[in-house]
Amino acid sequence: MYKKLGIFLLGIVVLGGGGIYYAQTSQDVLPTNTALMLDSVNPTVFETKNAEQQRIIIDVRTPEEFASGHLEGARNIDFYSAEFADIISALDTSTAYSVYCRSGNRSGQTLELMKSLGFTDVLDLEGGIMAWVQSGKPL
After folding, report:
1. 106 exposure class (CB count in 10 Å sphere: 0-12, 13-18, 19+)
2. What's the CATH number for 37-134?
């Protein structure tokens, strides 16, 4: 009986270890320079990616919010504008974009819209400009 139990436990260890090995090696097979980057990121990553790469920064807040302070070089496209979806649809889907709003809600919805339209490189500032300021980053 103990022999059968030992064989059973050994089988579980071998199968489990094989699964771990497969998971580790399959990650190595994924391309490291994938073109798809569609994600919400923290202020530090957002800042770094914008500095490393020529990205178009889109502020989806209202014009009044934009006038009160915005990230350097940002372009304002009002989320609440009747033309918002048309303006976003007209953008080049292969260009790299970074989007933000006040708290991350509108920019998160913008990220989803851009995904559905086939954009391949869009970053959303997680927590919006509030998180940016709270992390000590300049406007």
Report:
1. buried
2. 3.40.250.10
